[in-house]
C-alpha cells in the first residue's frame, strides 16, 4: 500500500514538473497571425545607459528578450502591457536586439518578424 501511494505521489509531482518546464519553452516563429498586433518601440536615454521599451500594439507582451550582438540573451523583461513603458539597463552594449514573446493558449511564441534593433548614437 505504501508503495502504491508513493508511486501516485511521484507521478503527480512529475506531471506538474513537466508541465511547468514545457511552458517555459519558446517557439520562435515568423509570419504568425498572433504576432501581427505586436508593435514595440524603444529609445535610449541621452547617456545611453537605459533603454525604454514601449508596447504600442494591441496585445500584452509576455516578455521581451533583450539580446546582445553575439546572440546571447542578456535580459528578459516580463509582462509589458499595452501602453506600458519598461526600462532596461543597457549594460556594456551600445547595440541590442529586442524580441517580443506573446502567450497564446499557454504557449509562448517568439515573434521573429517583430524584432527591433536598437543602437545608441
Provide a descriptive summary of the structure in words:
The protein has 121 residues and is α+β, with helices and mostly antiparallel strands. It has a single domain, classed as Immunoglobulin-like, CATH 2.60.40. It is 19% helix and 45% strand. It is built from one helix and nine strands. Strands 1, 4, 5, 7, 8 and 9 form a six-stranded mixed sheet that branches. A three-stranded antiparallel sheet has the order 2-3-6, with no helix packed on it. It is globular and about 40 Å long. The N terminus is likely disordered.
Topology:
Layout: H1 2-24, E1 26-29, E2 40-44, E3 50-55, E4 61-67, E5 73-80, E6 85-89, E7 95-104, E8 107-111, E9 116-119
Parallel strand pairs: 1-8
Antiparallel strand pairs: 2-3, 3-6, 4-5, 4-7, 7-8, 7-9
**SS content category:** alpha+beta
N/C terminus separation:
69 Å
Tell me the CATH topology.
Answer: Immunoglobulin-like
Helix content: 10-25%
The H-and-E topology, N to C, reads as HEEEEEEEEE
Name the CATH architecture.
Sandwich
Largest sheet: 6 strands, mixed
* % residues in beta strands: 35-45%
Amino acid at each position: 500500500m505504501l508503495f502504491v501511494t508513493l508511486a501516485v505521489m511521484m507521478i503527480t509531482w512529475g506531471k506538474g514538473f513537466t508541465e511547468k518546464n514545457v511552458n517555459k519553452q519558446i517557439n520562435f516563429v515568423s509570419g504568425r497571425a498572433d504576432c501581427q498586433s505586436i508593435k514595440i518601440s524603444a529609445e535610449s536615454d541621452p547617456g545611453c545607459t537605459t533603454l525604454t521599451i514601449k508596447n504600442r500594439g494591441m496585445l500584452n507582451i509576455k516578455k521581451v528578450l533583450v539580446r546582445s550582438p553575439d546572440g546571447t540573451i542578456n535580459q528578459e523583461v516580463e509582462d509589458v502591457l499595452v501602453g506600458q513603458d519598461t526600462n532596461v539597463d543597457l549594460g556594456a552594449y551600445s547595440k541590442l536586439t529586442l524580441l517580443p514573446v506573446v502567450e497564446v493558449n499557454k504557449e509562448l511564441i517568439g515573434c521573429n518578424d517583430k524584432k527591433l534593433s536598437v543602437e545608441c548614437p
